[in-house]
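User: Please write out a complete single-protein record containing the residue sequence and its fold in token form, without commentary.

AI:
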Amino acid sequence: MKEIVSLNFLGILLVPLIALLEINPFIVILAIGILSVYYLFKIQRGFLTAISAWNLGFLFIIGSDGILNYYDISKAIGESQAQRAAIFFGYSLFIINIAYIWFLQRRLTPIQQGPSTSSFYTDQPTGGNLIAIIIMYIGFLFLKVPGAVETLISGRFYVIANSKMGGIEYSDERAWETLVNPLMNIVGYILPTLIYHYLLVRRKRRRRIATAILWSLPIFLTFLFTGTRYFILYSAGTFFVAYMYYNMKPIRRFSVVILFCLLAFFSASIISALRGGGISGLVQADTMNLHLDRTEATVKYMTMVVDHYDTNDFTLGSSTLANFVFWIPRSMWPEKPTMFGYWFIREYYGTSFAGGRTLSAPASFLAETYADFGVLGIFVLSLFLGYILLRIDLNLLNASNAFSIMKVIVFSLVPIVFFLPRQINVPLTSFVGILAVVYAFRYFAVSVKVTKMSM
């Protein structure tokens, strides 16, 4: 653990010095992030935990963008603004890692190195368990496949431009239509893992994972063809994490981590190609190089935020608070506060903005807190995230080896945390939705009786 603390303290010292020398600070940030991931996997015996997923997501979303585009951003927006944005990103990553270790070392009981392998406990499914899974499965395919096929043929941008779509924030759909579509997304996030849970209890061990993958494949492909990155990441990622925690062999844990990283890379690349021209865009695209050409632009947008608040007053809490009402459709609450990523990009560009009505700027997890309170907001948020990531990992690694339906919530947090560096509102809303659906499923379709079973 001391290696992680020492590395990240070194990063705090080096990043501003490197920036002053006009060298890309993300070189240091990326190097320390990679080494931190190595030591985290080492002390947690190869398990993909929340803190590891956070570092991987940060490197994939923010680190890659900074490495590839830092100098272009510096020329376009300003050298001072780009330097400070890079320093804020680096310091936040380092503080989160240090805070995680600090809180961990002050626990009264040590963290276990993974669940027990001798036996496990499972919720006993009721007769309605399979029926509920079948209803959700059919409902998901009926409501989501047509849109996925249309997107595959024409491209996501074309579909959005010719429909009333627009998400909860700016949809023209009626209230119930606006709620049903996100609800089916939530169902798709957890349904593969619920199928795996059912098979874990009902079928012979040798056939569980193959059967679960077979039945989950239509869900994964539907999300892939829908053209939104985090859909497939949440659904397949939760499934992979659940499989990891109930298959204890180190080589299997390592394989799941590799699969998770490959899923993030190739799904992002494939979806980027599908968005513009559908399947024709995918056929013509160089998938291996697509991520290099189309990063998330979080560093660019965060640099704009830094530039904007050099001359404007901080919003003193209103930007962050808007994340907690994001899930309410605007058709139900017309006066709902507009999300930061939506209004900021329009205010920054003014009359020269030409992004269309659906564009929202993913200015990273730091944008709202910086807009509210500046550097103080970044510091407090980083400490808070360090503590929250530890709490998630304690549930993953310290919990009894019970395959309870409630564990689906904890498993889902790993891919959610991976996506969190991009923005706060989507992961937060996804978590709230998963929480509600899993609780409802457990209440209606699972007995609270716990039964011991041998692996």
Remarks:
- The chain has 19 helices and three strands.
- Residues 352 and 403 are 54 Å apart (CA to CA).
- The first strand starts at residue 119 and ends at 125.
